[in-house]
Amino acid sequence: MDPLLKLDDFTMHYRTKAGWVQAVDGVTLSLARGQALGLVGESGCGKTSIAMSVMKLLPYNSKVVRGRILFEGRDIYSMTDGEVRKMRWKGVAMIFQAAMNSLNPVYRVGNQIVEAIVTHEPETSEEEAWARVRSLFELVGIPKERMYHYPHEYSGGMKQRAVIAMALACNPKMIIADEPTTALDVIVQDKILREMDQIRRKINMSMIYISHDVSVIAEVSDVVAVMYAGKLVELGQADDVFKRPRHPYTYALMRAYPSILGEKHELATIPGEPPNLLDPPSGCRFHPRCDRASAECSKADPMWREICPGHYCTCHNPVEIGGTWVGQVRSGKAADGGDQLGTSSNS
Amino acid sequence: MALPATADAADAILRVEHLCKYYPVSRGLFQRRQLLLHAVDNVSFEVKRGEVLGLVGESGCGKTTTGRLIARLTFPTTGRIFVDNADVSKIQGADMAEFRKKIQMIFQDPYESLDPRMTIFDIVAEPLNVNGMGNLEEREQRVAEMLSLVGISPPSAFLFRFPHELSGGQRQRVAIARALVMNPTFVVADEPTSMLDVSIRTGIMKLLAQLREDLGISYLYITHDLAVARYLCDRIAVMYLGKIVEVAEAEEIIKEPLHPYTRALISAVPVPDPAVKRPVPTIKGGVSKPINPPRRCRFYERCPVAKSTCAEQDHPAPREVSGGHFAACHQL
Ligand SMILES: Nc1ncnc2c1ncn2[C@@H]1O[C@H](COP(=O)(O)OP(=O)(O)OP(=O)(O)O)[C@@H](O)[C@H]1O
Ligand SMILES: Nc1ncnc2c1ncn2[C@@H]1O[C@H](COP(=O)(O)OP(=O)(O)OP(=O)(O)O)[C@@H](O)[C@H]1O
Ligand code: SF4
Ligand SMILES: [Mg+2]
Ligand SMILES: [Mg+2]
What's residue A145's pLDDT? Predict the structure, then answer.
């Protein structure tokens, strides 16, 4: 069967006063029905840009340079406006990173969701819609009497939860959730992630889950894609990517994660500066910050290749499984091997 | 009520006493009867000079409201706020202008807080302009310096962009740069790094720690991320439904949480490993209702260790259980 969503060498740039921002560059990936894809990467690497491209909601100063996005086998950039609207309504719902922008400040929150339901499903009565809103509020943990309040009477995390409720209201085929739980404490987050996961399995919904939080991605995704500076650098089953990261960026990302378990230790960062997307580094875009970089890294763009079955990576010198990471030796730390990540619960 | 004071009062840059903020809210669509939402309810604490106090707690428990009260962006219903031992709860006019120079707030949502019509340069330079600091060239230099400190690099690629041309995390960093550009003495940082990946976030945490070292800046650091609080904060205060339920040194609270809510919170922190299945939090389900709360422990309905006596008494006052470790629970 066709995948639900397919990005094929998709490349998109933004025009600014200072030049073209190369925000998405040659991204190829696909999402099956019912699958959950986690998208991680540094702030500003192009995650939201991919989401907006899939929703066909790009701003005026953007340009699709090459490639295609197929939804149910159809190129969304050659669909008519009517077809796109239909796709957005029943097909894809988005939880925007800017929660506030998806709530209308002058309407009560409950009314907005009811309105969304009855416009998308004219056969649903208003009472049924209100009943659904009540159960959605319960699901996201907001007391139901607060359905009648305005967005400005909500806390930051409550707005986020209201937007999650809105996205779930119409049983979409796919949800793109862009940092949906950034304002939530772990208990509320945990509840919502579990509930969303259940709904996803029940109605066989696909999901793209964008987050900077590796632990959230680890919990909700089947497949994980890692981005760096507009490019996909690693893709594979969640277990493989987190336990046996092969790209040096993913490896460094996993090591930088602070934990509340175990002893407090010096926090690792990824040295160097975030890349300038107006003029990205030559060759591998990660090379100026990479511990494993060799001479060819600054010259040739590494190929996207399947390094193990189902595990893709673009790197000239991928991290060996279970091997010693060069960076650990250089920085004088104990060379306890790549395997150390597999036991990151270091109790 | 015992104030969770740790040192003599002269040492405190900020002290709040019995702070309350109640919002009138309507009950439903057709019922106009006003009810009171207890957003912040009798909260007292202090922040020492050069200290970072973390404020963590459930979504909707009153963290932002506490921050806004301290930054004087909203009036307390009752209670007092002292900065440098001077009562600032009612100041106005010139005093207020002076206060605004010293106290900065980094807002939770960078999509709401940055003026969409201003360029990044104007946003960060505005406090300098308002206070007539430096000439244009000096301001440009200062703005570029602040932007590169927060990892917006190279600054020249961003100076003349508008907020909508930035990613979420980039906006957050612009908001941080703006708050720090004037070298404030006290910063209320409301989830300032919630959209940042670990590496950039660690960079910002190191920057904040450095500024505290160099300039003695103190912070109230609101976050839901306990791992961040552990690394950045000296002490952590835990809030639940408008009340502070526990305060202690950061390491102590992570390792020896006393209050049942804190315990649940810490046990629920996820681990970045898909193989580790976390236990379901020990806390009972249900939603927290801050509107006209009954006179008993706010955590009663969801508490795994509650006894009937908890329902019979008013919300417990914080009690010093061991040196500097305060908790508000009848069962301790
Ligand atoms: N409308 C725009 N015009 C110009 N540049 C833009 C625009 N939107 C985003 N950018 C730039 O494109 C790059 C990618 O932005 P995007 O919002 O996709 O990042 P992101 O991965 O979602 O980051 P974050 O985690 O911080 O939200 C960033 O460097 C950003 O500055
Ligand atoms: N202007 C307002 N009018 C009415 N209620 C309000 C107002 N502002 C906040 N509240 C309510 O006060 C309570 C505390 O809100 P606050 O924003 O302080 O929470 P918070 O701890 O910052 O939560 P979050 O982590 O979700 O941002 C919430 O129940 C909220 O709905
Ligand atoms: S290609 Fe080279 S520079 Fe890029 S990540 Fe691999 S080793 Fe590092
Ligand atoms: Mg984004
Ligand atoms: Mg808040």
Answer: 87
pLDDT category, A272, cuts 50, 70, 90? confident
Considering only A13-17, A186-190, B279-283, which range has the smallest mean pLDDT?
B279-283
**In angstroms, rounded to a whole number, what is the distance separating the alpha carbons of residues A175 and A92?**
6
Q: State the pLDDT at residue A327.
A: 34
Nearest CA in chain A to B154: A276
Smallest Cβ distance to B202: which of A16, A188, A269?
A: A269
Q: What number of other Cβ atoms are within 10 A of residue A15's Cβ? A: 14
Tell me how many domains chain A contains. 1
User: What ipTM was reported for this prediction?
Assistant: 0.89
The pairing of strands B218-222 and B52-57 is parallel
Domain containing residue A145: 100-169
pLDDT for res A100: 73
Amino acid letter for position B209: A
Q: Is the dihedral of CA B85, B88, B90, B96 positive or negative?
A: positive
3-state secondary structure of A132: helix
Q: How does strand B235-240 pair with strand B12-26?
A: unpaired
Question: Would you state the pLDDT for residue A343?
Answer: 33
Query: Which chain A residue lies closest to B160 (C-alpha atoms)?
Result: A17
Cβ-count burial of B1 within 10 angstroms (0-12 exposed, 13-18 middle, 19+ buried)?
Answer: exposed
Please answer whether residues B234 and B51 qualify as being in contact, where contact means their C-beta atoms are separated by less than 8 angstroms: yes
Q: Do A186 and B291 touch (CB under 8 A)?
A: no
- Predicted local confidence at residue A326, as pLDDT: 36
B289: region left, alpha or beta (phi > 0 left; psi from -120 to 50 alpha): beta
For residue A35 the two structure tokens come to 């699958």
Nearest atom in ligand 3 to A290's CA = 8
Domain ranges of chain B: 9-26+34-84+185-327
The whole model's pTM is what?
0.91
In three-state form (DSSP H/G/I as H, E/B as E, the rest C), the secondary structure along chain B is: CCCCCCCCHHHEEEEEEEEEEEEEEECCCCCCCEEEEEEEEEEEEEEECCCEEEEEECCCCCHHHHHHHHCCCCCCCEEEEEECCEECCCCCHHHHHHHHHHEEEECCCHHHHCCCCCCHHHHHHHHHHHCCCCCHHHHHHHHHHHHHHCCCCCHHHCCCCCHHHCCHHHHHHHHHHHHHCCCCCEEEEECCCCCCCHHHHHHHHHHHHHHHHHHCCEEEEECCCHHHHHHHCCEEEEEECCEEEEEEEHHHHHHCCCCHHHHHHHHCCCCCCCCCCCCCCCCCCCCCCCECCCCCCCCHHHCCCCCHHHHHCCCCCCEEEECCEEECCCCC
Do A251 and A242 contact (CB within 8 A), yes or no?
no
User: In chain A, where do the E strands start and end?
Assistant: 5-16, 19-31, 36-41, 62-71, 74-75, 92-95, 174-178, 206-210, 223-228, 231-237, 305-308, 311-313
**What DSSP state is assigned to residue A78?**
G
Q: Which CATH class is domain B9-26+34-84+185-327?
A: alpha beta
Q: Which residues does chain A have within 8 Å of residue B172's beta carbon, measured at their own beta carbons? A: 43
Is residue A71 over pLDDT 60?
Answer: yes
Q: Which of A187, A244, A251, A279 to mutate to test the interface with B (most CBs of B within 10 A)?
A: A187
Decide if A47 is inside a domain. no
Q: What integer best gives the mean pLDDT of chain B?
A: 89
Q: Is residue A137 part of a domain?
A: yes
Q: Is residue A191 included in any domain, yes or no?
A: no
Q: Residue B148: how many CB atoms within 10 A of its CB?
A: 14
Q: Residue A130 falls within a domain, yes or no?
A: yes
First-last CA distance in chain A:
44
